[in-house]
Specification:
single chain; six-stranded antiparallel β-sheet; alpha+beta; 359 residues; 10 helices; 3 domains
């Protein structure tokens, strides 16, 4: 429907024609564009209040010869924004309240559809419009407290034992923990009391045998990760720190977060599939591609390469992520906010979670 055309709505229509008082005229629309939400289009109609109410009420009995009306059995004003895809509507009275301006606003990727028939199917959620008004990505740091027994020295000990004989690393950390606990309780490696306990310093060799015995023979032959003579010296330093009272240490974890604001009738879903499962970076970009819509005039599309990850170089190209349960909130203006989070999974026990798409 072209702009500035008179549109009649049959409030008191008779066989002779349409009441002159019940004619509304469409004014020039107001359009804006931004990268986040595409086009925002506000269409405005001016006329008598009763005619504008009929116009907004919808239904074939209120259509003009061109079939132009708002869809919905109870009307856009009574039903609220979104019944026909509009994110907001307004009826402003002027000139003593007899005349007014009715306006409806859409966020759309296709400006032609917003300027066409207000009831057209082109503005339903499945058409490519109504996807999102904004989409914000953040990459946060999340410092975690990790058990001191999972520090790099003990992990290096496990790696050396595994390289020596596959499977021999299992239980080593637990054995070190048991040795320290027994020493704290004045017990030797057999669980017996330690003679002259208050004169006895802790020595890991008292609980694992000499350095000639496995596993200490493997650890003493391994390179230090702390710049010491060998890995056994590192191990003794780690045990000393634990005996001083250290219980945990901090590690860095990345949290990738996407927050979308959607119109009232958006078809965008929170994506509850694959919650609490291990995703790859490629899985995330695939999900983004499924939500693609054209927003740049005239036909170009958003590049779903996650620029935040690109800033970090290739560090995340092969990363795995734990997808958390999405958060959905209805905002005070009737819109929806969907927040999705992925936790970088280098420190996540993959044995506890299924991979993406696994039944």
């Amino acid at each position: 429907m072209s702009n500035n055309t008179f549109v009649g709505f049959p409030h008191g229509q008779s066989d002779v024609g349409i009441d002159a008082a019940d004619v509304v005229k469409e004014m020039q629309p107001v359009t804006t564009w931004n990268r986040d939400g595409g086009y925002t289009v506000t269409r405005r109609w001016r006329g008598p209040i009763d005619a504008l109410v009929n116009f907004s009420d919808g239904g074939a009995s209120n259509a003009d010869f061109d079939g132009t009306y708002f869809n919905g059995t109870t009307g856009i004003l009574l039903g609220g924004p979104g019944r026909d895809g509009a994110i907001s509507t307004n009826l402003q009275r002027d000139e003593g309240g007899q005349l007014g301006i009715f306006s409806a606003t859409w966020v759309t990727s296709n400006i032609a559809s917003a300027l066409g028939n207000p009831r057209a199917a082109g503005r339903t959620g499945t058409s490519g419009d109504q996807y999102q008004e904004s989409s914000q990505w953040t990459l946060d740091g999340n410092d975690l407290e990790k058990d001191v027994y999972r520090g790099m020295v003990l992990e290096a000990c496990e790696a050396a034992l595994k390289a020596d004989t596959a499977g021999t690393q299992f239980g080593f950390v637990a054995r070190v923990r048991t040795a320290i606990d027994r020493y704290k309780n004045a017990k030797d490696d057999d669980g017996n009391g330690v003679p002259d306990y208050f004169d006895k310093e802790f020595d890991i060799e008292d609980y694992f045998g000499s350095t000639a015995d496995h596993p200490l023979s493997v650890i003493i032959a391994a390179a230090s990760v702390l710049g010491n003579l060998n890995l056994l010296v590192d191990l003794k330093e780690a045990c000393s720190d634990i005996l001083k009272g250290q219980e945990a240490f901090s590690i860095s974890q990345y949290v990738l977060r996407n927050t979308k604001t959607t119109p009232y009738t958006s078809s965008l879903i929170p994506h509850y599939a694959n919650v609490n499962r291990i995703w790859t970076t490629a899985n995330i970009t695939t999900l983004m591609a499924a939500e693609i819509r054209t927003i740049d005039p005239p036909t170009s599309a958003v590049a779903y390469t996650i620029p935040l990850l690109g800033v970090m170089g290739t560090i995340f190209s092969s990363s795995v992520w734990l997808y958390r349960t999405p958060d959905v909130q209805q905002l005070s203006n009737g819109k929806w906010q969907i927040t999705k989070e992925w936790w970088e999974g280098a420190e996540i026990a993959e044995s506890s979670y299924k991979n993406y798409g696994v039944a």
